[in-house]
Amino acid sequence: MKGLLVSSGNKINKELLEKYGRDSFIVCADGGIKNFVGTDIIPDAVVGDFDSIDKEGLKFIKDNKIAVEKYPSEKDFTDTEAALNILLEQGVDDLVILSATGTRMDHTLSNMLLLEGLYTKIKSVIIDDNNEIYYVKKGVYSYAKNGFKYISVIPISEELEYSTKGLKYETNHLIIKKYPIGGVSNEILKDSCTIEVHRGEGFIIKSKD
């Protein structure tokens, strides 16, 4: 079952909402409702403490009779986590997370780390107007170019060993560390590329610019 989680980071291009919102179970985290105002895409639920929803957003929720799950502002989990729990309860196994990056780097990083927690449970990716973010560990991964120019491997373990095919700078069991990183801004040359992680864990980030 496909799911869409729309967080309350930077507003996203409506094309992304159209692409991922039409056939998915949608849960919106708090101020993420701004992405839906003025569209005919209606979330199945909105969750959060409602501290970042403007009048237009509140009207959109009321007019479309969207289910609401409200939490106090002082809590030990984020609105995005609350939205994620609902999606998991619904049986979602293929999740796209939009509007999860932005000016709050603490939220951006915590949202990225959610991908690690989801890795053994469901397929998941964070997407914004310029990037796609995946969590990876030992395994083989294929990525379509689809308008993206760069691809980076960012380790979060002490070391990450990987090999590539279809990139400008090919690697064969290259070992990178947190510092110096060494895996940033490779280029996708073909329609798709393959990255095999031999050991370690980290993020794969596709970027347009």
Automatic annotation (TrEMBL):
UniProt domain Thiamin pyrophosphokinase catalytic: residue ranges: 23-121
CDD domains per UniProt: TPK
A Pfam family hit: TPK_B1_binding
Gene3D superfamilies: Thiamin pyrophosphokinase, catalytic domain
Keyword ATP-binding included in the entry's annotation: yes
Keywords for this protein: ATP-binding, Kinase, Nucleotide-binding, Transferase
Annotated GO MF terms: ATP binding; kinase activity; thiamine binding; thiamine diphosphokinase activity
InterPro entries reported in the protein's UniProt record: Thi_PPkinase, Thiamin_PyroPKinase_B1-bd, TPK, TPK_B1-bd_sf, TPK_catalytic, TPK_catalytic_sf
Enzyme Commission code: 2.7.6.2
One of the GO BP terms on file: thiamine metabolic process
Domain named Thiamin pyrophosphokinase thiamin-binding: residues: 146-199
Matches recorded under PANTHER family: THIAMINE PYROPHOSPHOKINASE (PTHR41299)
Stated name of the protein: Thiamine diphosphokinase
